[in-house]
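Reopening this one. Same input as before:
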Amino acid sequence: MNSNENGPAVSVIVAVYNAEGYLARCMDSLIGQKFTDMEIVVVNDGSTDGSQNIIDRYQRDYPATVTAIAQENQGTGATRNKGITHARGRYIGFVDCDDWVAPDMYEKMYAQAVTDESDIVMCDITQVYEGTKETEYLAGYRGQKPNPCCVSDFVMDSLNSAFAWNKIYKRELFKEIKFIETWYEDVGTLPLLVSFSNKISYMPTPLYFYVKRENSRTEDGTNPRNAELITAWENCIQHANKAYEWEMAYSVYRSVAANILHFDPPARDLFIRFLTDNRRYFETNDYARQALELGDALELLESSITHHGKCRDMLSETQHHHAICRELLHASEAQCRNLNEKLADAEARLKEVQERKPKRWSL
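Same output, byte for byte:
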């Protein structure tokens, strides 16, 4: 990672893949920022459309602001990691190539970071439904406490929801933490960044515009790659700051509860196995126990797992009975074959005796 002694205040990394239809809107929102002490690092992740031509145009028109990098297709996590290695800012932010930001987003967020001496600053979101004029307000922090006061509060709700792009991060956080290079890279990385922060600020102001697309990969509950959520959850549990080990386990528990009914088998079965394999983090977790005592939605998860287990036991019992019946049928068939063979043998012997019996002659 480059030194930032003479670098800008903020580096914004844009991961691009086949975005020619909306990349210009994204770039215009960044170029048009009121805050000028920033750079834009654009990484083309092996696009096969005209995205690179658009990137080249912005780099040519704004050479002091835009840095362009190209690589073979590796996925969002690897693309962001590549951008981080070229970023020079004291803080780092991310924007998806089909989204855009308010003109004062980085001005306000950086000012908040300086005022609070924060490692992370997060804002609220305007969700825009693609192809419509419909929008929805999304809170950037969705925790149970209306006024989160410490890192522990943020860790417990770091997976609800895990967005990388409505935040800026102090660059030092990325010295040891990298984005996982699988699906659900935000889920497997953002909670770690939160857990190793000393101070986090929340601005309840919608500054990021997130485009909700119909063909979003996370909307397809049948895709086999949904099972990669497990990799993300495991990364959170294994690599979180040990000072917040139980808060992180609780956050993962809630994430499983939120997703377990959204996806179809076999992912759902793998999620249940994940809970079983990591039982020690959940069964003895005081945060989970308190939530259950308060009638939290985790009861739904518990009942779902119980119901799933009962159904699986019934299926196993039915299969066992079926196996017994099948064995009895096979035994009956074998006995029938044996009786048929004996009957055929008896008929053959009778015929042989009849042929040997002397014939009577009449006079």
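So the earlier flakiness isn't reproducible anymore. For the record, The CA atoms of residues 58 and 108 lie 24 Å apart.
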